[in-house]
Design goal:
Elements: H1 11-39, H2 51-70, H3 93-102, H4 104-126
Helix pairs in contact: 1-2, 1-4
Length: 128
């Protein structure tokens, strides 16, 4: 069986891939987690000044590093978060985002994240 090796991400392309995972996947997921922690009033670190922002930044960074680094090596394990388009070195940054948005599952993912974040934000605001 002949397989083609994917081009290795270096420099700017790696940073773009990292930014896409960070902003489009990591931040929405961990913002929801921070809101859920705040909602159940388990605010050991989220209740501190800038605690939620630090939590979201750290976890989204870890998510982006893990997914961009190991996603191509273990696609079965990262099947729900790995996007081969983000690591495509032949496409520009805007083309990667455009093609990702054109996928049918992306709309469902973005809509469910928006609804979840909205419901959690209402819950958090309603508790005060």
């Amino acid at each position: 069986m002949t397989t083609l090796a994917a081009p290795k991400l270096t420099g700017r392309k790696w940073l773009e891939c990292f930014a896409l995972y960070f902003v489009l996947q990591g931040v929405p997921i961990y913002s929801g987690v921070a809101l859920a922690i705040k909602l159940i009033d388990a605010a050991e670190f989220v209740g501190e000044p800038f605690g939620a922002a630090i939590f979201v930044a750290m976890m989204a960074t870890f998510h982006a590093l893990l997914t961009s680094g190991l996603g191509a090596r273990f696609p079965h394990f990262f099947r729900h978060s790995f996007q081969p388009l983000f690591a495509d070195t032949t496409l520009s940054f805007s083309e990667r985002v455009t093609r990702w948005l054109a996928q049918p599952n992306t709309a469902l993912q973005l809509l469910s994240q928006a609804l979840l974040l909205s419901a959690l934000a209402i819950g958090v605001l309603g508790t005060r």
